[in-house]
Amino acid sequence: MARKSVSAIVGRREEPALPEPDMSMMRVAVAGTGGLARLIAHFIQQDTGHHVVLLSREAKPQLSQEYQIVVVDYGNPQSLQFALRGIDTVISTVTGPNQLELIRAAVSMRVRRFAPAEFEGLPSLRVPNTPLDRGRSLARQWLASYSQHIQTISFVCGILYERFQPIGLGHSGIGLTPGLGSEGDYIMNCRTMSAQVPAYNANNIPNVTICMTAAQDVAKFVTKALDLPQWPAELMMYGQRIAVKDLVGLVQRLRGKSAFFG
User: Fold this and answer.
1) Please, where in the chain does CATH 3.40.50.720 lie?
2) In terms of DSSP bridges, do strands 89-92 and 260-261 run parallel, antiparallel, or are they unpaired?
3) Which residues contact 235 (CB under 8 A, 6 or more apart)?
4) Does the keyword NADP apply (predicted)?
5) How far apart are CA 24 and CA 50, in angstroms?
6) Which secondary-structure segment (H or E) carries 13?
7) DSSP string across 170-225
8) What span, in angstroms and rounded, lies between the C-alpha atoms of 213 and 217?
9) What pLDDT does residue 15 have?
10) Residue 240 main-chain phi, psi, to 5 deg
11) Do 37 and 93 meet the contact criterion of CB atoms below 8 Å apart?
């Protein structure tokens, strides 16, 4: 059986090549309205001449006072295609089937660049097809298969500092997937001082390290990357690299309490 082309799969129109885009003023769509999406939109609007829109599943009257909000139905290809008309770059903060439909629509509408919802550690180190993966491995596979039509990038930033704040990532509207964004879901709960610490390596040496970055710095980094003429496969950043045991020790000193290890 003849193999279908990517264009046939996504319904992408075969058209003559477009001229090189004006990199000084692009239309950028940020998918999602959570804390990280809002930070990215804020710095694009504040620090660049690009026009940014936020893709939302529902109307956001308060947020629309600051940003252009486009309501989309991820289950309706026409809705997504209409929202992406004239868009140069998509930055996704949504995962799972919604992100796959967004990729399909982006390729169909000749979007030039697509940054999937990564914003964690190296994708190659993450176990695919697990609750922690949230369909992101499949999204990267799709984007790799469309590489002749659309540029893509993974923003690798390690762990967000905001994981350790009161209420966890949910306090910033980030990582709202159940079991992933709450206080204490990762390494330790700074309020109750309970910890489950992967501090030892395979040789039983306590030298396991993590990289951490503030969500605001991630958003600034993503904004700067918009002006790169070509995107690499990955861009890595971190605000601090620290041994897990030292992180726990730092929290113990700041709180004046010992941690309980479960």
Assistant:
1) 27-157+214-238
2) unpaired
3) 153, 154, 155, 156, 221, 225
4) yes
5) 7
6) none
7) GGGT---STTTSBTTSSSEETTTTEE------TTS-S--EEEEE-HHHHHHHHHHH
8) 7
9) 47
10) -155, 140
11) yes
At 55-74, the pLDDT tens digits run 999 999 999 999 999 999 99
Helix (H, G, I), strand (E, B) or coil at 22: coil
Region 27-157+214-238: CATH code: 3.40.50.720
Spatial CB neighbours of 84, under 8 Å, sequence gap ≥ 6: 29, 90, 105, 106, 109, 111
Pairing of the two strands 234-236 and 154-156:
parallel
Do 155 and 119 meet the contact criterion of CB atoms below 8 Å apart? yes
**Predicted model pTM:** 0.85
**Residue whose structure tokens are 């003559």:** 16
State the Cα angle at 133 between 128 and 135, rounded to 5°.
Answer: 90
Nearest Cα neighbor of 251 from 188, 203, 202, 209 is 188
Most confident listed range (46-60, 152-166, 242-256): 46-60
Which pLDDT score is estimated for 5?
44
- Determine the 3-state secondary structure of 88 from DSSP: coil
Strand 154-156 and strand 209-213: the pairing is unpaired
User: Residue-wise over 163-176: b if at least 16 C-beta within 10 A, else e?
Assistant: bbeeebbbebbbbe
